[in-house]
Amino acid sequence: MVPKLQVETPYISRALTFEGEKVRLTDLPELCDHSRFCMRAGGIRNLIKKGDPESIKIAVEEATICPSGRLVLWSKEKGTAYEKEFEKSIVVIHDKQKKCEGPLWVRGGIPIESSDGYEYEIRNRVTLCRCGLSENKPFCDGSHWMTSQEKAAFKKKWGIIKNGRSELPLPDGRGFLLQRRDLPS
Ligand code: SF4
Ligand code: FES
Questions:
Q1: How far is CA 143 from the centre of its chain?
Q2: What is the percentage of the chain residues whose pLDDT exceeds 70?
Q3: Which residues pair with 75 in a beta bridge?
Q4: 75-81 long-range Cβ contacts below 8 angstroms, 24+ apart
Q5: Fewer CB atoms < 10 Å away: N or C end of the chain?
Q6: Is 87 helix (H, G, I), strand (E, B) or coil?
């Protein structure tokens, strides 16, 4: 029997934070599948900065359908994450604008394990590469439509150097979050 290997460092210990008055966004850029659901109405960070009820409502909608789970929006008052209740399901993301099929969208907390027994963190939203080109397998990194220049620009912006991993120390709690907090929005 294949031995179980350790679950990877949890999302929450590696995510950057972006603070609004009433909500907090946590963000792990290396998970992005570049499906762009977070860019409506000026983008999720602008909506959080605005902070009025309508903007926060749209920000919640955007975060909860971020397929990859890169983005999670939290209520500061309640200390809980906004999450949709997905049935356990797997669908293929179709990107109309880019005219291509994207990753597998795995929803509702389905366990993911590699063929050599590596168990990944169980999450409500995850996107898995199905084109074979991702540099962050098993997760999608947008390679199904992005050019190498576009990928390089994204990695530079967010400090991702290779294999989808950050060059900053992991997962040294506060130090990591504080260092990353002021990165571009
Ligand atoms: S995966 Fe999430 S963060 Fe990345 S573009 Fe899509 S909605 Fe935005
Ligand atoms: S499906 Fe997105 S990188 Fe493979």
A1: 15
A2: 82
A3: 23
A4: 75/22, 75/23, 76/21, 76/22, 76/23, 76/24, 77/22
A5: N
A6: coil
**Which of 93, 131, 137 to mutate to test ligand 2, by most ligand atoms within 8 A of the CB atom?**
131
Report residue 64 as tokens: 């909860």
List the chain domain ranges.
Answer: 11-158
Scan for tokens 């898995």, then name that residue. 128
Per the DSSP assignment, residues forming a β-bridge with 92 are 104
Distance 69 CA to ligand 2 centre (A): 15
**Ligand closest in space to the Cα of 35:** 1
Distance CA 91, CA 55 (A): 29
Q: What residue type is assigned to position 34 of the chain? A: H
Per-residue pLDDT of 143-175, as tens digits, reads 999 999 999 999 888 877 654 444 444 443 322
- Centre of ligand 2 from the C-alpha of residue 162, in Å: 16
DSSP state letters, 124-181: SEEEE-SSS--SSTTB--STTT--HHHHHHHHHHHTEEETTEESS-SS-HHHHHHHHT
Phi-psi region of 141 (alpha: psi -120 to 50; beta: other; left: phi over 0): alpha
- Residue 38 DSSP label: G
Reported as a single tens digit per residue, the pLDDT across 21-42 is 999 999 999 999 999 999 999 9
Side chain identity, residue 129: C
